[in-house]
Fold each of these.
Amino acid sequence: MSGLDEVVRPECGSMRKLLRVAPDAVDLAAVDPRSTPGLPAAAGAGKERKGWARKQVELLGAELGRQQEMLYSAATGAAGPEAPASAPSQADAHLNGGRPRRVLLVLQAMDCGGKDGTIKRVAGAMNPLGLHIRSFGPPTEEELRHDFLWRIRRALPPPGYVGIFNRSHYEDVLVARVESLVDEATWRARYDLINDFERELTGSSVTLVKVMLHISYAEQGERLMERLTDPTKYWKYNPSDLDSRARWDDYQAAYADALARCGTDAAPWFVVPADRKWYRDWAVAHLLGETFDALDLGYPPADFDVERERQRLRGEDERVKVNGG
Ligand code: AMP
Ligand code: MG
């Protein structure tokens, strides 16, 4: 085993390329949920890979944290943390296209697919100050009075933030379709609506990272049994999980269609084999890291005269000495 104290890049060069699904060739059955694509030889073999990957996620986490801070600093700068994106400052010259970016990780998976665990491990490495994490459950009465994207728009991360969606607008073409919560014409129309919406987002400073955590039927069964065996996990179980499980194939078909219809160059879908939790976290951390790299982030320059401020500070020190001492 090597690479114990530095980040080892995947051998393929890019996890984004490796895990991206081509919209015209979505075949989930062909993706082995226990596979570990892109894992370098440095990971070793067999059981030692887990420890290696966990350590790598820690190291990567430090990198993600730095990148996230740059993203955040560009949006806040000296103008104040909640400065509107439209308020120009000297720092703007340094930003992509003059607008502070935001990154939005969209996590979708079957129950027990590992969305919560991924957030804990990968987002856990970043600064909570710059994170914007939202979970989506069944729509409330108020949400149902609006179109399906209404609650999504309200949950978008502000400029400079890393947003994470634990489920998303895709539920409206997944559970809504499989459980016939709306008629077919309605869910069918949503693919185009989603594409329009995401085009609008990517056109206005949002970088989307859409990830499906792909687990197997057998692995879901084991994780559900764990939840029914360990009293500290009862809270994660919902009897309706078994109803969804009974419709596994319908859900897989709905996922395949969503990935095929809504995978675009601007907002591609990635499928992460997720039966092995350590691989899942490692892969998602790299997907995020590569996304940050492509944004070419940096810290904003000072929008004040640094030398003058230093002099003022020294002058202040002098006065305190005179007065106080
Ligand atoms: P969990 O993620 O385990 O907390 O469960 C959230 C539940 O909310 C899942 O059963 C989802 O299918 C359900 N859900 C999320 N979004 C929607 C939606 N738009 N319509 C109906 N159910 C939804
Ligand atoms: Mg659940």
Amino acid sequence: MQPASTRFFARALGMVAATLLFVGVFSQTTLYSRLNWWLEDSVQRLLGASLPMDHIVAFDVDEDSMQRLEPEFGAWPYSRDLYARVARFLSGHGARAIAFDILFSEPRRGDDALALALDGRSVLAAVALPSPLLRSPAYHEDLKRAALFGAAGGPGESLRAQAWPDLTLPLAKFIQPSRAKLGVVTVVTDADGIVRRLPLLHQAYGRVVPSMPLASLLAADPAVAPEVAAGELRLGSRTWPLDDSGSIILRYPSNAAAVPIVPFFQLVAAAAGVQGNAHVADLVRDRIVFLGSSSAVLGDFAYTPAGRLPGLHLNALFTELLLTDNVRRPAAAWLDGILLALALAIPLAMARRETLARPSEFLVGMGIIVLVTAGAGIILLAAGQGSRWLFATLAGTAAQVLALLAWLYALYREKQRLFYEKLAAQEANQMKTEFLNQMTHELRTPITAIMGFNKVNQLTDALGRAQRVHNSEIVHRNCEHLLALVNNNLDLARIEAGQLEIERSPTEVATLLDDTVSTVRVVAGEKWIALRVRIDGHLPGTLSLDVVRVRQILLNLLGNAVKFTDQGEVVLEAGWDAGILEMRVIDTGIGIQPENVARIFEPFVRVGSSRAPGTGLGLAITRKLVEWMGGTIRVSSVPGEGTTFEVRIPAAEVALPAPRPQLAPQEAALPALSGRVLVAEDVAHLRSLIELYLDKLGVEHVSVSNGFEAVEAALDSEFDVLLMDMSMPVMDGFEAAQVLRHRGYRKPIIALTAYQDPVEVERAKREGCSGVLYKPVSIEQLRKALEPLLTGRDGTPGVSEAQPADTAPADGDIVVNIDPKLAELVPRFLARCRDNAGELRGAVEARNLELARRIGHSLFGTGTSYGFNELGQVGQEIERAARAGDIAGLEGLPERLENYLARVRPVFG
Ligand code: ADP
């Protein structure tokens, strides 16, 4: 999983990239430009400053002037004598420059007079043409002379200037020798037809000519030469930034229409000395004077952010704007970067908040983005600084919308997640309920049996010992089942919590398999099912295995195989495949339906219509154990024909012969122990039970009911072992053990605890206990725990000393190896079997099949347990024949039994 910060950066990068791409593409469209212009024009109209307009004045040949001048000078176009006259008048009255916004390109009457009247302060209009005309060399010569900069290959080529295919020039005689300036009067509009820019320089045929406003300034101050460098045009102390086409962006004042305009006839009158026109002389002093026409017939008009204005006004206005430096500085990348960063800050912050963001925050954020970016843009505009503020506003808004969409998506995902989590929780809850139902059901059955049979034993006086014992056995069996259920659950929980430890040790595989099979042999025999073990010759004798867990796995599989097989056989096969122990349990039972095969490994899943007892946990545990050991388990089954479980467990081959696994002790066959034990247990009936077991084991005992008494008794008197419950009143077992060890008590202390909790066990050991016994304690477990501790007392082992002398095997004898612990009981057992043989003969003769069956059953159960497999086999055959009413089959069996009993020689060791 990526860390949250990396995830955020990836998201933020994606968001910014998408925004810039989208707004970048949009900013190339006409819609964007128009929106930008409209907004900026509106801002300009609202915030434009008012100019004094005291550097300029324009004389307009308006309709009125035309009418008034017509009687004396005829109709327009006037003889150029008239212009010569007014030019002289204007020069004479201190005009700084005189710009004629009239194209003098055709020869006319009075040209010579005008040529004489012009000088270096005069500016003559040139007009740009959209297509080239056929020009004579003389034209190019004129252009060269009149140009501000450059011949071909000169600086003109690299200058930023508005390029035109052609320029119409005034007559050459006006320019030479007067040194009058040329000024291009053609205006340039944006795509929407509005004049916002003024190209300061124009270029045609490689020659650069100034615009009329610039030419007017040059004429007004001829001593100062213009310089062009690094995208700027410098004129004395003034500098104007040029864009790629050599234009500047103008800041229209709020009083753009208030250019001082005087009707031309007044100038003519003033020049003629007509009384009442003295104000004209005052007006022109120290100003740049423009002459032109706004008449509908002649004047050219242009649309500006300040409205529709005649070209004459524009030229005058632009000159004033240049002089007062009302030029907008172009957008700067660093400034745009800051605006963009401001715009994106909020969407990024929102994206960072992920699902924590609230809807109102998006709305407020949007407002802030627009306010900040548009506000900053407007403030900059008012200060004469251009910027891409609209771009920033749109980018911020788009990013905010993206953040909103991402938020909605995240919310949707979160909702989905919660939905699935809820489903999972419901399912888990349902599973828990099912588990509890199952568990309750599984517990109720044995508990009911226990309570019922116990009650019968308690309340029925005339029951007789045999029936009472029988009932008690049922109670016992059900207790064992309950215990198995609880243990299985604990096992499962422990495996699932990863608390299970695999303890491998050198193990004789054949012994382990035989031993395990013999555990289920009795049940298999009862069902008349053959049980076989087939061990592959290549299987190593000793493997490193966790004997307890492998045994548990096999018992589960074999137990199931026997349980779900009514006839036929169950085979346990074991083989070796390069470091892997392969075990197969094959049965000829009811099989499993294909659709159920995958489910049977789930806890509590019990399939098929079988009412066989069980918890439904066996296979779940088995699979987990196998996997925990790094192995695999597979099942294949044909319904009605049988099932095969195959387990493969990695196991190392070890050279050392493993110690022979201890066979489960047989309760009835155990010899007595001797010694003295102190029992500390507060629950009276548990205490009695332990006392009973100790009696049976032949051990002397004293009992106390709390830890304090235990300490006193242990220190008072001599005991071989102290059996101590860990949870007792007054002083608990842990404390008592601690006190005793503190006082130098050295005898073994065995902790009794109900909790199979590693922490509790660890604590008991820490406090000085030598071992642990888990409740409920069986007599075998008690014996197993006490035996090594009592052994060696007075130099004698605790087990019975009555070791019978080995019978030397004679010819024809059947020698059987028997566990030495059973030595004391075996002679009595064999004697009883001989009695049985006699009884069997009588039963067969008397056709008493029931008696024969019982004898067979008892022989079958006990023979195998003691280790006399042949006896078990004969017993099984007797029981089978008796059940089947097979008298003929029964007849040879008493003799076979007697024969065997006569020849059998047990050897202990
Ligand atoms: P239990 O045996 O206690 O019911 P398991 O987990 O051991 O629980 O088995 C689960 C189920 O799998 C059994 O109830 C049975 O339906 C099916 N099953 C297991 N082994 C066999 C087998 N050898 N033949 C047929 N069905 C089997």
Amino acid sequence: MPVDTDSAEGAKYKRVLLKISGEALMGDTEYGIDMPTCLKFADEIALAQQLGVEICLVIGGGNIFRGLAGAASGMERSQADSMGMMATIMNALAMQSALETIGVQTRVQSGIRMDEICEPFIRRRAIRHMEKGRIVIFAAGTGNPYFTTDTGAALRAAEMHCDAMLKGTQVDGVYSADPKTDPTATRYETLTYQEVLARNLRVMDASAVSLMRDTNIPIVVFSLHNKGALQDVLTGKGNSTVISGN
Ligand code: GTP
């Protein structure tokens, strides 16, 4: 069913890209894809979609294979990155399955052609899918080695003219130190792109943050772990850190 963005009740954004790390799909397991966790995220996305927000997704691949780790163990870097990109396609297909299990329409578009299992990335087609209320899952990062899925997410957010990039993480924002090890760590409500880059806050890699700065798309860092967290972020409730130009 088409998303009626004009009635996007109380939503701060009309179109967003949600970035989830591959590790998040592991849930409490050590490796790979935990379907109950995928279904939990699918529920979150379905709830958020009810606000009338158009949503696209980028999922990392670190739960299956990390290009950098492959390169560190002696593999040629471009080869290793190709394997990492294929891992993101597996995750995209798992999330597609989870979303469609609960009746949410989706399309997967890949930056590396894999026509038998998903669509190729076609920007204008992706926009039409979103206008029709489908969740578009972008797989295979930028389709190039030497980039990360954060950069892929930033690129797609810019190409889709998203109003925000939402980064779902383990914690509910960006902290002054690691909140798991340092009890004095405090969460920033807001930061500028420049502060993130200058202080090397490692929210996302620098090229992703710079692209968001150049295209003036805010990055919202939040925790996906609480029920309704995505809906809360979209309506300006709950904890998060908003990174923008001011
Ligand atoms: P509309 O034109 O808006 O109806 O979009 P649509 O995506 O439903 O149109 P289409 O008839 O092109 O696609 C029907 C199904 O085929 C969808 O599930 C698409 O994801 C899938 N599909 C389209 N192109 C490709 C492709 O190149 N490869 C694969 N594997 N599936 C594709």
Amino acid sequence: MHSEACIGQKKSVYEGTNAVPRSGDPGRVLHLGLTDGELANRVIVVGHHTRADLLSGFLEAEDSGSVFKLASDRGFLTYTGQFAGERLSVVSIGMGLAMMDFFLREARAVVKGPMAVVRLGTCGCLQEHVKVGNVSVADGSALVQRNYSHFDSQSPAHAKPYTISELCLPDAELTSTVIAALREALGGEKVNEGTNLTADSFYSSQGRADSAFNDENSQLIGEVLDRYPKAITMEMETFQLFHLARSCLPKGTMRAAACVVNVANRPTGEVVGEEALRLAESEGGKALMKALAKLQL
Ligand code: R1P
Ligand code: URA
């Protein structure tokens, strides 16, 4: 018999399967790959590695003499260092509700004490007057989900193809600090505030047309705007961040805020240029790091 198949003779690949499992010694959480103390209480969370690399350039070395860096084999990339006298991490988590869930739960498991998390993402913008390259801060977020039951031919006719949730709110103080820092860094005309919509797909639940699938979404953006006329941004993680921060126990120990660079104006079809995007990411990101460092935790 091949040795890998000898169930019962090998140490388990991880422990604690009914809670937040860890593997190795020291125990590392399964998906972020981090162990206790490697992540700071103040975190900027972004969607891709290039943005994390960019912002990690603003971090200064820890006492060890370098900025901590760890790439997990599940796609998470963590940097931890010093910024304006505080310990701060920048983490790239990839995309979607599930990745934000992995991140916040496993981050909570390896960090002691109160946390503050700010997302710097990108989005499609639903309002014609909001310019691409601007940064929009969420004053609330609603979740737009594909209703899988609707697409099952056995389901009752009244089940709608998409569900739209109630609003979930961010931390008010952190959000005001973020807005002030962004305005100072980018100028007031480049910073918008409004409702965020988090979708469970880049495609169907964001109202994109794709003739290769039955999506029944041609009316979706209109329905969402009827319900939330102040909605300006549509992306894929903010609701989960706000929801889990509010669900975190003890209450108030995880504070959250979120903003996104508008990369595409959905009504006009305009898409941001490379240079404007990098500028918003780097100057906006630095402003968020200042806001996080300033926050009394
Ligand atoms: C889709 O292209 C991705 O871009 C947006 C969405 O939320 C989704 O994750 O944000 P990020 O640029 O932060 O990944
Ligand atoms: N990210 C999204 O989720 N949607 C967009 O339209 C652009 C970026």
